[in-house]
Amino acid sequence: MQLGFNLPNSGKLTAPETMARLAHEGEALGYDYLTLTDHVVLPDLAVPGYPYSESGEFLSGDPMVRHELLTGMAWVAAKTERIRLVAAVLVVPHRPAVLAAKMLATIDVLSGGRLTVGVGAGWLEAEFDAVVTTPFAARGAVTDEYLAAFQALWTQERPHFAGTYARFADIVLAPKPVQRPHPPIWVGGESPPALRRAARFGAAWYPIGTNRAHPFDTLPRLAAGIARLRRLTTEAGRDPDEVKVAYRVKRLGAELPARGSDGERRLFSGAEADILEDLRALAGLGVTAVDVEVERDTLEASLHELRRLRALLARA
């Protein structure tokens, strides 16, 4: 199982020297990948709406302060040598399809083929109103179309595409990504459309378990979601084994309420022995990657958490 951690690109730890220190330490500890998140702007957060916490509030302190995702990934690529770089996740409608495909291809080339393109349709309507030119209500259709456009741009010598939201022909995108046929796409999201998108486009489905509306926070819920993914992948005409599962952990241990709304113990809650058993159970379900949050109030506390979790996860 691959192990990753979230490199904070928002909040208190966004100074360049702080981000570089965490990235270097994670690479030296042997983490397989690091992740960065994607918001361009945020609205007034007086009304909580974050989908992945019980309170609806962002889990990181000062989320309004943040670096742009793709610029940040390119910078981190230059500061590291081996660790993979995972967008967690790129909100696909935020950027025009051709521009985003070009930027992602550039990151893959300049990083020596270390890019994984985590993707999602987005959830924050006020951000869409400020950033995006396509309709918020159509974000799922836009995401699916842009992903198809990405694949055309990355794989065709003379790319052409005729969609509702993206159209191009008689152009050249070069250089192509180092990874062939293109960088792996991890499809984030927990809703039924997200699962269908993973079945169609994904090298992996990449859920966060603690989505309040679509929880996959207990072992029975996640097992049911994976079984649904397998059925949808077959219906999409693909081999179910082509689509792996990566699992994103926002909080663990005592920070996480012990029981899900289905009455089962929540994954990654409890003591270290419980967390290790969860990792083994997830491996039994076919989960091939797990990443965790290490952000704390200070750099030293975050480095401590980075080291502690690496030692813990390595025991599974």
For this structure, what is the CATH class?
Alpha Beta
Which residues form runs of ≥5 with pLDDT under 50? none
CATH superfamily: Luciferase-like domain
Sheet having the most strands: 8 strands, parallel, barrel
Helix content: 25-40%
Radius of gyration: 19 Å
CATH topology: TIM Barrel
Terminal Cα separation, in Å?
A: 9 Å
- Spatially, the strands of the biggest sheet line up as 1-2-3-5-8-9-10-11
Q: How many structural domains does the protein architecture include?
A: 1
List the helices and strands and how they pair.
Elements: E1 2-6, H1 16-29, E2 33-36, H2 69-79, E3 84-87, E4 90-91, H3 97-110, E5 115-120, H4 125-131, H5 139-155, E6 161-162, E7 167-168, E8 185-188, H6 192-201, E9 204-206, H7 219-235, E10 244-249, H8 272-285, E11 287-293, H9 299-313
Parallel strand pairs: 1-2, 1-11, 2-3, 3-5, 4-5, 5-8, 8-9, 9-10, 10-11
Antiparallel strand pairs: 6-7
Helix pairs in contact: 1-9, 2-3, 3-5, 5-6, 6-7
